[in-house]
């Protein structure tokens, strides 16, 4: 899970499974809170899922700034490539 495309596909799959979303709704431009109706508890579940997939934890402060699926992809990309 290194490229942004890989991260997006993994994230889309996770969001479809975790939140029962239709895959076509999960786009890079989709707003997590308005478009996908993800609440703060869902966000914690998503952070936990990312941690299990990458072995690294996204800081809560970093996650507060994300608004779109693309923002999450970028945060995970920076996380997994920081140690590289």
UniProtKB/TrEMBL annotation:
It holds the Pfam family PP-binding. InterPro entries: ACP (IPR003231), ACP-like_sf (IPR036736), PP-bd_ACP (IPR009081). It is found in: Cytoplasm. The modification O-(pantetheine 4'-phosphoryl)serine is found at residue 40. GO terms for cellular component: cytoplasm. GO terms for molecular function: acyl carrier activity. Residues 5-80 form the Carrier domain. SUPFAM superfamilies: ACP-like. It comes from the Bacteria. Gene3D superfamilies: ACP-like. Pathway: Lipid metabolism; fatty acid biosynthesis. The keyword Nucleotidyltransferase does not apply. NCBIfam families: PRK05350.1. This is Acyl carrier protein. It comes from Pseudomonas abietaniphila.
